[in-house]
Amino acid sequence: MARKKRTWREMSGGQRFATMMLVTAQLTLQAAALRDLKRRPASQVNGPKAAWTAFSFVNFAGPIAYFMIGRKK
What we know:
Number of helices: 3
Number of strands: 0
Oligomer: single chain
Distance between the termini: 47 Å
Structural class: mainly alpha
Shape: elongated
């Protein structure tokens, strides 16, 4: 049985705070990945920069994957 999604108004203060912290963490990770991609030469990136840029928009997985395997040492 599927659970009903809660609206913002139905969330408690703690749930709203946790949601905002997750959103902030996601946006910070993505901004850092996009900034690094912009500044790093293509020769120091594993794969095409355009693909990593697009993949950075996949929640937490994209930016974390970029920092773990997308950059050359």
